[in-house]
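Thread: Newbie trying to understand structure tokens

Hi all, I'm a second-year student working on a class project, and my supervisor (Dr. K.) asked me to get a predicted structure for one chain before our next meeting. I've only ever worked with sequences, so writing a 3D structure as a token string is new to me. If someone could post the tokens and maybe explain what I'm looking at, I'd be very grateful. Here's the chain:
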Amino acid sequence: ARAGAWDGPSRHGWVADPTDDTAARRAGLLVEWRRAVGGGWEGRVVRVAQVRPGRWALVEEWVDESLLGPV
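---
Reply by user tm_fold:
Sure, no problem. This is what the structure looks like when written as tokens:
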């Protein structure tokens, strides 16, 4: 590994179809993977979401792997 490179389990990425009902992708932090009921994968992400006009909050949720992308 490079000197100073992060070797922890979390990764930065993009979350498509955010819960705040916008078409925008949101930057998030992927902190964990788990096997989904149908055999695919889900990622546990932490990100910010607009909860009211001009009001933002921290959101943690499990999302389908198809909604996650690299930075």
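A couple of things are worth pointing out once you decode it. The longest strand covers residues 41-52. The two ends are 19 Å apart (CA to CA). Feel free to ask follow-ups in this thread.
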